[in-house]
Amino acid sequence: MFLRNTTALVAILAFAAHLVAGTPLLARDEEGLGDLDINPSDVQITPGEGLPSLESLGITTADLHDNVLQQFNTTPDSTSTLSLLRPRALECINSGPFFRILAAYCTAYLEQLGNTPCVVTGAACTIMCVARSGADAAYVGGRYMPEGITTDTTQSYCRHVAHASRMVTDNCLINIVKSNRGREYAYGNGHFLVGVSGHDWPCRSNRGLGQENPGGP
Length: 217
Prior knowledge:
The chain is of the alpha+beta class. It is built from 5 helices and 10 strands, in the order H-E-H-H-E-E-H-E-E-E-E-H-E-E-E.
């Protein structure tokens, strides 16, 4: 736990140093992908079922790039985007790491949708957005809470789902480049749990992976 917290602290201090210096975040990890060292045209956004495509919105990933830059050039806020109903819901899980830059594109896409409803039904994980670049991907999904077998439905503005996505990305840090997967409630909705992951099971809990089905709770 100490090592994990120390790693996160180092990442946050490095982030702050970049902000003070006014320099771009071009850190690279061992796999070579830097936070901002990516061409928007190399990013592919796949919306969740029923959500509009970039084409139908009349935008491209290049149009989302300013929002992405803004996410990386503002200080992460660990309080303002917490759910109103579950103020300490954020859960960071030591698996499923993802590139923060890709998650930021999904966050930007969901913010672009504004008051469009994002809807989840039951315990199955509903994917809201996938951002890919080459073999790398970030998944943002949601499911109904509390856990258990249910067919209940809830919805939130997609921009409120984006709040939760940003919360995970900014606070489940491994380093400047990557975050671990995590879960947080959509802003103001204690029944809408949002997950972000580098794999297609962003909504999974912190139980052993052998106990869960892909895409499950």
